[in-house]
Amino acid sequence: MAVGSVHVDCQEYRAAIAGRKPSALDFGEKAMSRYPPALQRFEDNYTPEPNSGCWLWMACDNGAGYGLLQINGRQILAHRFAYETFIGPIPRDKQLDHLCRVRCCVNPLHLEAVTRKENILRGECPQAKNARKTHCHVGHPLSGNNLHVLPDGSRRCRECNRRTSLRYRKRSGATIRAPYFKEPEQ
Question: Quick one: which of 34, 113, 131, 150 has the most CB atoms within 10 Å?
């Protein structure tokens, strides 16, 4: 598996760390030469989870579950430190996505640099859940002529909207317009 500028063979990596805690040495000299004292503190603060392969951050976090590491008097996110140390720089327009969905995981093989939009849509927030919907709450498809996209990007079911309008007009006593049908020419 090629990640950034470093080639990591997952089977070789797993074999190298079998039965022991992974270290920067498993990723080569590049990782060791970059931040030696910080790297040692980093390695002292995570515990590998054998079933999932996650490296669980055991030190302080930022309140949202992401690990924090202090380097040169600044607190940085531990998973970003791991990615930049073992894989390479994070592209300017990208965010790191935890493929394992565990926020306290600092395993660089569980991180992927993606766009903000992709990171949000991979998650479990309401926007991501709505984007994955293929049918409205009644069961009508949210596609083709039945889909109405509003200027803010939200989607509406045309059939449900039509039925809601019809119920409102009946309740309020408004004139109910018949659907427009063009008479065939003879």
Answer: 113
Question: 68 with 78: CB under 8 angstroms?
Answer: yes
Residue 57 structure tokens: 């951050």
**Whether the Cβ atoms of residue 55 and residue 46 lie closer than 8 Å to each other:** yes
| Interacting residues of 117 by C-beta distance below 8 A, sequence separation 6+ | none
Tens of pLDDT, residue by residue over 67-80, are 999 888 889 999 99
Residue (of 30, 56, 28, 52) closest to 42 by Cα position: 56
Whether pLDDT at 36 is above 80:
no
| Residue 100 backbone dihedrals phi, psi, to 5 degrees | -80, -10
Q: Does the CA dihedral 38-40-41-47 come out positive or negative? A: positive
Q: Name which of 12, 47, 44, 41 is nearest 28 in CA terms.
A: 12
Longest dimension (CA), the chain: 89
* CATH, domain 2-122, list 3.90.75, 3.10.620, 3.30.310, 1.10.238: 3.90.75
CATH 3.90.75 placement within the chain: 2-122
What is the three-class DSSP state of 80?
helix
What are 20's strand-pairing partners? none
95 touches 116 (CB < 8 A): yes
**Cα–Cα nearest to 30, from 108, 84, 68, 80:** 84
